[in-house]
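Progress against Task 2.4 (sequence-to-structure conversion) is shown through the following example record, which the project officer requested during the mid-term review.
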Amino acid sequence: MYIVTDTHPWVCFLTASPRLSQKAKSILSDPSNLIILSSIVMMEIKYLYQHKRITLSFDKAITNSKLVPVVW
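Structure tokens generated for the chain above:
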């Protein structure tokens, strides 16, 4: 299944935040799902980290995400 996610749920998933619902956690962690992130999500993570709004760095987000670029 294709799953499109935004910044907030993606950051919560990568940081194992208890604020993320069990259903969302299950969907995002299912290896049979293809998680789709827009490029702006990664730029928002970089911005939020630089402004000390989140503790997840851009580099760690990329490493933890195992991102594969896709051009549509």
